[in-house]
Amino acid sequence: MVSLLSNSPCTEFVNPQLSNHPLQLLQLHRPTHNLPPTSSQSVKILRLQPNHSNGLSLKKKKNEKKGFITARSSISDVLRLMDGLGFSIPIGMYVSFIEECTASGDPHTAMELHTHITRIGVDHPLSFLNRLLLMFASCGLVENAHHLFDKMSVRDINSWAILLISYFDNADYEGVISLFLNMLDQVSILELPNWISVFILKACAYTMNLHLGKQVHGLLVKLGISDDSLLTCSLIRFYGKFNCLEDANMAFNKVARHNSFTWTAKIVNDCREMHFYEVIDDFKEMGRRGIRKNSFTVSSVLKACGRMPSHGHCGEQVHATAIKLGLASDTYVECGLIDVYGRSGLVREAKLVFEMIHNRTNVACWNAMLNGYMQNGLYIEAIKLLYQLKAAGLNPQESLLKELRIACGGSREVEFT
Predict the structure, then answer these.
(1) pLDDT for 294-323, tens place per residue?
(2) Quick one: how far is CA 347 from the chain centroid?
(3) Are 1 and 185 in contact (CB under 8 A)?
(4) Angle, nearest 10°, between helix axes 194-206 and 229-241?
(5) At what angle do helices 313-325 and 276-288 cross, to 10 degrees?
(6) Rg of the chain, C-alpha, whole Å
(7) Are 362 and 329 in contact (CB under 8 A)?
(8) 317 exposed, middle or buried (CB, 10 Å; 0-12, 13-18, 19+)?
């Protein structure tokens, strides 16, 4: 077992909040001939979907809409035809079928195909078994994937990674941690790709396991890769969930070259801890360093502006920056602008932004505008907007409804239907 480093504990906690990172392990290539895949062929890990109790029926309906039932029928027909003619199926054809099932996510076809392959009773190379693992994982068949994994006499880092991500996407974060610890006993830590550590840190945050997260951080330091921007971003977010800003800032300061993701992660942490002036300073520093802001950066800064006594000037400056960057029409930015103008008493500006929003079905923008009217005592306008919201088929935030009822007479009998 690898000896992991640990740091001092932190006692304050906040709710975890995580973001997705696209995974790419190896790349799938559809074989052009009926030749068995070599060990140099690569496999692409697709984004896996969580497996719920009714996952098979949900996936079936979803795949029917996408036309995957046709693909399923064609694979089944080919298998039956080849069996009827007494022909053996080349491994290259199996690989094509596995790739198709992996892309479609059809669990029924995946199980049928695996049964057909198992019936042959031929030992397959590791690369082929990893493809089967990936197929099961992509179809949400985590138990099938684990059963196949247990039967594999030889495994590599790809085998462990596929199963680990399938557990993560199935929201079994305790299982992710358990599998990771077992993996450290079987695989050299030098083989671990950086993105696996990203998912382990996310699993630690979901399970509120600060101690293991600190051990993973210590392992990254020991390997000399803790200053990687991807890992740094994950560490900043991880420590932010536990209110360990000192550790988060320490990880941030060790990076030689920052990008928009590391800066945004720091800004989100500072905003969560209500360090609003530091948020503005970080936003300005990003501009001085020429680091491009994204919509998440701008929306986070707008949240800070709405809670500062700047009388709307801060929000107006960020609004101008958003227009300059072409981000003013982003849904999150639009909601942030409506909120900051409403909180600053600039109701006319908030209404102008609201009238220009592109996605009229986004209830968050309606709630922000409704809250802006109510915070400024414009209850008649709030009631008018509420009826418009109802006419659009949307439901307002319940707490806003209660507040509006109180303002309109303090009676629970006041209804807006």
Answers:
(1) 999 999 999 999 999 888 899 999 999 999
(2) 34
(3) yes
(4) 10
(5) 30
(6) 26
(7) no
(8) middle
Please give the structure tokens belonging to residue 351: 């209404």
Composition of the chain by helix, strand, coil, percent to 5: 65, 0, 35
A 10 A CB-CB count for 37 gives 21
Tell me how far apart the alpha carbons of residues 144 and 133 are, in angstroms, rounded to a whole number. Answer: 8
Tokens describing residue 78:
């080919």
Q: Is the pLDDT reported for residue 203 higher than 80?
A: yes
49-53, 71-75, 83-87, 388-392: segment of lowest average pLDDT: 49-53
Q: Are 254 and 226 in contact (CB under 8 A)?
A: yes
Q: How far is CA 84 from CA 132, 135, 227, 356, in A?
A: 24, 26, 59, 63
Q: What are the C-alpha distances in Å from 168 to residues 140, 183, 201, 225, 360?
A: 11, 15, 11, 23, 34
pLDDT band at 96 (very low <50, low <70, confident <90, very high): confident
pLDDT in tens, 355-369: 999 888 889 999 999
**What's the average model confidence in pLDDT over 56-71?**
42
Q: What is the DSSP string of 329-380?
A: TSHHHHHHHHHHHHHTT-HHHHHHHHHT-S-TT-HHHHHHHHHHHHHTT-HH
- How distant, in Å, are the alpha carbons of 45, 55, 232 from that of 203? 19, 22, 16
If you count them, how many residues does the chain have?
Answer: 417
Please tell me the number of Cα atoms within 13 Å of 340 on its side-chain side.
29
Q: Phi and psi for 94 in degrees, rounded to 5?
A: -60, -40
Amino acid letter for position 221 = V
Q: How many Cα atoms within 13 Å fall on the side-chain side of residue 94?
A: 23
